[in-house]
Amino acid sequence: MTVSAAEQEKTGLGNYFIANYPQFSFWSSSYLPDAERAVNSPPRPGVPLGLYLHIPFCRKRCKFCYFRVYTDKNASDISVYLNAITKEVELLSKTGCVGGRPLDYVYFGGGTPSYLSASQLDGLMSRLRAIMPWDSAREVTFECEPGTLQKHKLETLRTHGITRLSLGVENFKPEILQYNGRAHSEDEIYRAFGWARELGFPQINIDLIAGMVGEDWDNWKRCVAKLLELQPDCVTIYQMELPYNTEFSKALRVKDGAARTSLDLIQPAEGTVSPAGNVADWPTKRAWTKYAFDELVKNGYEVSSATTVVKSKANTKFVYREALWRGADMFGTGVASFGHVNGVHMQNLDTWEAYVGKLEAGELPLGRAFPTTERDRLIREVVLLLKTGHLDVDYFRGKYGVDIRTEFREPLAKLDREGWLKVTGEGVDCTPEGLIQIDRHLPAFFDPQYLSSRYT
Ligand code: SF4
């Protein structure tokens, strides 16, 4: 089937955001012996170690969410899970790949880490820090849903050394928040942000989504104005996707009953009540993102990647992202969590029962893995670092012994010709237009065997 350029610009089902390489569909349980070898081998010199903790609980499920989350767990289930994840950190802390390294960065993601009560958080963090202290870590990030925060919960986080608070605001308009299934209200955003500032968290990030169902230009401009009033240190703007298995994806039917592919046109199902009745296409979402970036830059912010704008590039670092994109090691703990150790990608078992069961038996809950080659790691860094808008030729020469200008001559020439980037002397720089849509151009760097695969 030939798909027109216009059809490709519509928001279809599937992922477009590139989070890793090679893609998850190539990872397999048959590589688990490689993962076990990797965690039991000494670390490569100079590679930092991070810890990711997946807290998979949410008040309700957002209609666009495709993460492994639970909305029906009670206090005793949560206690079982927190015991399991603590056990996992304990098992990992004793593996050979730690090699005496202190944690360089920690990330509490979800789900909704702030769904946990202050006393659950206090108990969890006290136990974790006794096993793997993070006092010398450069960054400890904690994701929050504004409606779950109270001042004393934020005080607990501050006491435990959280340096970067990330608020999932997504939009300011109550009707849009509600239609898209978000649990928080607009008032809760201001309340949470005020407390966070008062308590002096070193860095506060706000997430927005360009293209939530019901979005329009007027409201998007209001959202950006409200964002500017708050003056967060960092702003992350995602462009709405409709991956498979979200509530929206199930509720929307494909025009003419065609097979569900990422290129099909999606229409609201009959009887569906939507504020705008449709999902914005990619050019509109890019225009909204560009508008927000431009407004923020006009107000003194700097673009630091395809999705983030910061108050000051020199002072507002995002260590987790930088480390991960440069191939750092990271223990991915929690159900279905992703990690990377000694060149091997790994993911935990993705059901509650299997995950908890393994840890109760005293074993690591690994589910699938992928051992990367030196070339895979080179390509992974090229595609992930391109999201910062810049590649440094010398960095790759020093680390991989290759000149990326010759190694990737064809894709670079193609993207240069099309106006998405420029090869300039010792660097590669995305054009502003290229950066805002860089994810869809990254497969140009993939080796042929990793092309044309569903991205899960
Ligand atoms: S808060 Fe985040 S993790 Fe939870 S349902 Fe919504 S999008 Fe998913």
Describe the protein's topology.
Layout: H1 5-8, H2 32-39, E1 49-55, H3 75-93, E2 103-110, H4 118-131, E3 139-144, H5 151-159, E4 164-170, H6 174-179, H7 186-198, E5 203-210, H8 217-230, E6 234-239, H9 247-251, E7 253-254, E8 266-267, H10 282-298, E9 302-303, E10 308-310, H11 319-325, E11 329-333, E12 338-341, E13 344-348, H12 352-360, E14 366-371, H13 374-386, E15 390-392, H14 393-400, H15 404-407, H16 409-417, E16 421-424, E17 427-430, H17 432-435
Parallel strand pairs: 1-2, 1-11, 2-3, 3-4, 4-5, 5-6
Antiparallel strand pairs: 6-10, 7-8, 9-10, 12-13, 13-14, 15-17, 16-17
Helix pairs in contact: 3-4, 3-12, 4-5, 8-10
Bound molecules: iron/sulfur cluster.
Iron/sulfur cluster binds next to loops.
Key attributes of the depicted protein:
Coproporphyrinogen-III_oxidase, Arc Repressor Mutant, subunit A, binds iron/sulfur cluster, 9-stranded mixed sheet, 2 domains, catalytic activity, rSAM, 3-stranded antiparallel sheet, pyruvate-formate lyase- activating enzyme, S-adenosyl-L-methionine, 4 iron, 4 sulfur cluster binding, globular, 36% helix
Write a structural description.
This protein is α/β, with parallel strands linked by helices. The chain folds into two domains: 22-325, tm_1862 like domain (pyruvate-formate lyase- activating enzyme); 373-446, Orthogonal Bundle (Arc Repressor Mutant, subunit A). Helix content is 36%, strand content 18%. Strands 9-10-6-5-4-3-2-1-11 form a nine-stranded mixed beta sheet, with helices on both faces. Helix 4 links the parallel strand 2 and strand 3 (139-144). The longest helix is centred in the N-terminal third of the chain and has 19 residues, at 75-93. It is globular. The model is unreliable at 254-277 (pLDDT under 50). Iron/sulfur cluster binds next to loops.
